[in-house]
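COURSE: Structural Biology Practicum
ASSIGNMENT: Worksheet 4, Part C
STUDENT ID: 0417
INSTRUCTIONS: Below are two proteins. For each, the amino acid sequence is given first, followed by its structure token string. Answer the questions at the end about the second protein only.

PROTEIN I
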Amino acid sequence: MVAEVGLAYVATVSPDGLPNLSPKGTLKVIDEHTLAFGDLASPGTMRNLEHTPYVDINVVDVFRRRGYRFRGRAEISDDPALVAFLREGLGADYPLRRAVRVTVEETRSLISPIYWVTGASEDEVIEIWERKLGYKRQTPGAD
């Protein structure tokens, strides 16, 4: 789902305790316990991680109203191999110089109440949101 959705939201906490939520289009799965994202334009996120190295990451398919929440410890990295891996597939020469490697300590499924409130199937939920948003959901590999 991380690759399919393509956009995640990373929450950090500032030194004075304020929340920071930042969209990340570079999130990738390294292995079953590790995620990583690039530092493209995230001075607040990076500053916060230097102070408090914990993140909460949400990835949600807006049409399916399902997703995942990953919580864990983050480490800022200058590893050229990791940076190159995160740069793959971006389609532009973004100024990606650092990466954040996240050791996932907790994973939770996210699911909208629409499923149990209405009893709708996943296909019905997708149809509802396609109508509301005014366009069809694009699925990987679809023509």
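PROTEIN II
(use this one for the questions)
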Amino acid sequence: MKITTILGSPKKKGNTASILGVVEEELQSMGHDVDRINLSNKSIKGCLGCYKCQGTDDAAACVQDDDAVIILGKMIASDAIIFSSPVYFWGVSAILKALIDRSFALSTKYGSPDHTSILAQMPIGLIVTGEDAYKDNAECIFTTFEKFREYLLGKNAGDMYVGECSKSDDLAAQYRKEAIQFAHDLTS
């Protein structure tokens, strides 16, 4: 499988990158082709809400010219996608939120019987890290992301929350077993 991972953290070596790295290593050891997109060095403008992308259901027809268009193309060319982010004020990072908003271009006719998506049946997973427990901190991210996945007509390929994170160097070791299981669940 060709799997695109999207790192929505500004920290290239932070907790989110560390956990995502364990998942990526396991996927590669299973023989999958993994391509990480680090959003911290990308230029992604917010969605304009112009609806011009809604004129076609077979391409990401966004009128903006930035890195989001390239990333959406890589998502379309994938067999599975993993989004990852730290918790930022009960949500995902701003750069990941911008990409999610721009993913509006991947689906058309939402709410109608003719609803289509370029990513229909695509396995889509989510990894989130945070300093606090899941409750009253991260649960709204997963609720919102499930709606996003439904909009894309994607397949829920797994969700993982790593809470009560510190700046520990052994964080990946602590959650290694769970991250490896996440990789296997994504591809099953």
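ANSWER KEY EXCERPT:
Q1: The first strand starts at residue 2 and ends at 7.
Q2: The helical segments are 15-29, 67-76, 94-102, 139-151, 171-174, 176-187.
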